[in-house]
Backbone:
């Protein structure tokens, strides 16, 4: 199970964030930008944002956050849609709601930035250790990220995820 491997990390990292119940949409958007950019910089397959995990001990404590429920709306818009409108380019992030040891957990799976840093409301973020910071405040990190992104071969990038063999063949037609 992916959650077990995330909890085995000694601390939060530049590509893993743990929260209990914080559901502030602005904070989530900033974290998606930061985690996507950090995953690209560190050449990680994914970044993860987990709710229901205690930050310091990584103990499963559960969460009341439900990203697909009505309280997770921003105005009249569903949270995922609202986040997507403010991220540029928008990574194909996905919320996963699960039960673990009888407690509700939410995992947000975030792919790495692909060809340009991911921006939240026109500002790119990154991680410095376990802290989220504006990317332009760290010019060496920004330079390294651009270098990393420019070295990715177009042919090696993932065009679409979680597609069956038949769907791939259909899309190639």
Residues:
């Amino acid at each position: 199970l992916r959650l077990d491997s995330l909890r085995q990390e000694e601390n939060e990292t530049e590509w893993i964030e743990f929260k209990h119940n914080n559901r502030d949409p602005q904070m989530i958007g900033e974290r998606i930008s930061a985690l996507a950019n950090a995953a690209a910089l560190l050449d990680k397959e994914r970044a993860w944002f987990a709710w229901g995990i205690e930050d310091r001990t990584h103990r499963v404590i559960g969460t009341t956050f439900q990203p697909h429920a009505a309280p997770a709306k921003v105005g009249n818009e569903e949270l995922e849609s609202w986040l997507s409108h403010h991220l540029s380019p928008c990574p194909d992030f996905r919320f996963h709601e699960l039960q673990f040891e009888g407690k509700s957990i939410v995992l947000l799976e975030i792919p790495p930035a692909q060809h340009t840093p991911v921006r939240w409301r026109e500002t790119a973020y990154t991680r410095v250790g376990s802290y989220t910071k504006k990317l332009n405040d760290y010019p060496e990190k920004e330079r390294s990220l651009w270098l990393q992104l420019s070295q990715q071969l177009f042919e090696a990038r993932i065009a679409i995820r979680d597609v069956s063999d038949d769907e791939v063949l259909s899309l190639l037609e």
Q: What stands out?
A: The mean pLDDT is 90. Residues 20 and 52 are 5 Å apart (CA to CA). DSSP finds five helices and eight strands in the chain. The two ends are 36 Å apart (CA to CA).
